[in-house]
Design goal:
By secondary structure, this protein is α+β, with helices and mostly antiparallel strands. It has one domain. It contains three helices and two strands. The protein has a two-stranded antiparallel ribbon. Strand 1 and strand 2 (21-25) form a beta hairpin.
């Protein structure tokens, strides 16, 4: 389990990976891209979109 609030506080740069591919990079850009208030919310949105993509296939 990741505590993304802590990561957001101590890291200068964050990114989200899926199977070695960068999905999003840069904390402010990530939150804006996923219209999220914090990285925890962003993580949930990414996980839900992955589940949706898998069920669409």
């Amino acid at each position: 389990m990741h505590i993304l609030g802590d990561i957001e506080e101590v890291c200068d740069r964050t990114l989200f990976l899926r199977e070695g591919t960068v999905l999003a990079e840069g904390t402010a850009k990530i939150k804006q891209q996923f219209q999220s208030l914090d990285l925890d919310e962003t993580s949930i949105k990414i996980a839900r979109s992955e589940r949706q993509e898998a069920s669409d296939q």
